[in-house]
Design goal:
about 0% strand, 5 helices, mainly alpha
């Protein structure tokens, strides 16, 4: 029931910014919803659009990047309460 993922990054990227940007509410939500259904396979995760990794993004920046609606954002915020 456990899974993990690793991300190979370019040498010129700041690893702290990368870590910050991949630890966000949207990705927590995806993992929470699909981890027990084997949806979050590496091949499927690779299909997600690549988020910017050169500057720190807020959860709202990521919601905007993925063009989420207010309804979708409210739903995520309702489910992901530990952040």
């Amino acid at each position: 029931t456990q899974s993990f993922c690793y991300l190979l990054i370019e040498n010129d990227l700041n690893p702290n910014i990368v870590l910050h940007n991949v630890n966000n509410k949207l990705f927590d939500y995806l993992n929470e919803c699909f981890r027990y259904a084997n949806w979050n396979s590496v091949n499927l995760l690779r299909k997600l659009p690549k988020i910017p990794l050169t500057q720190e993004l807020t959860d709202n920046d990521i919601f905007e990047f993925f063009k989420l609606t207010n309804e979708e954002i409210n739903h995520i915020n309702k489910i992901i309460t530990w952040r």
